[in-house]
Amino acid sequence: MTSQLQSLLKEKINANIKAHGLADKEFAEFDSYQSGKIEQIPVDKIKPNNAQPRLEFTDESLDKLADSINELGLLQPISVQKKGDFYNIVAGERRFRAVKKLGKQFIDCIIITVTNENNALLALAENLSRENLSDYEIAKAIISFKSNFPSKTEYAKALGISRQKLYKLFAFEILDNDLLAKLDNHPNIISADTIEQLATLRKHLNIPHDEFLPLLSEGFDLIISSHLKQSKLPDFIKNKANNSLSNQHPTNTKVRKSYKKEGKTIGKIIQTDKKFIVELESLNLNEADLEKVEVFFDNLLSNS
């Protein structure tokens, strides 16, 4: 999905930026503006763009760019926006990092003013015209800036993609912080297509979210260690979930009641052919709660 999505976003975002009144700035190839006064600004006065979706600027790519700048000079200034006593990068973070790597004290800049919405789109656009982004990197940036748009429909329109493609990227929202940390370090291990399949699978199997995440974590670790192919992850999750269900709950199992706290399942009452099982997460119970549970069962069984 990634290369096709990049090409589509690159084309559509460029058209959208021009449609929103930036065409007169001659914003070309999703990079710095080609017109305007160039100023030399101290490197230590410049901050990276918070809208920057790229997670990985490889040393190799920065070294190559730094060598080129050292030999030929900075052929294209970066675009910045003034914020108090500092300047935030709008476009050109790779060039900024390369110049900083060379130990230079100043860098050529064009000072511009953009809205938060267009700042996010410009940062996305620059990256899409450069090195390959993973689906996760694209999704993380898009998810981070959804609050700048009134609805997902309007956001999809601004990005120039269908709502279906946007929802596929939003499927990464099912992951918790631990799984997102794994993707921060290994952004290419899973695609948006696979994440969407997993989200659908969880609903189909009716697996509680807090039970689903550990299975995903195990699967991610296997992919990272090259013991599992990404394409096999849905089958791996399905098999693990089915095995867990059959081991924990024999045939003719009925969940009589589930207990939730802040949207998270913390316990359930299960009835089988031979057993009546009460499951509660101990982390949600203090010592006084545990004593109440024990007293309840003592009284229940002593009267039976």
From TrEMBL:
> In the UniProt record, does the keyword Coiled coil occur?
no
Give GO MF terms, alphabetically. DNA binding
User: One Gene Ontology cellular component annotation?
Assistant: chromosome
Which parts of the sequence belong to the ParB-like N-terminal domain? Answer: 39-128
Keyword terms of this UniProt record = DNA-binding, Plasmid
Q: What is this protein called?
A: ParB/RepB/Spo0J family partition protein
Q: Which InterPro entries match?
A: Chromosome_partition/occlusion, ParB/RepB/Spo0J, ParB/Sulfiredoxin_sf, ParB_N
Per the record, the similarity remark reads:
Belongs to the ParB family.
**DNA-binding as a keyword?**
yes
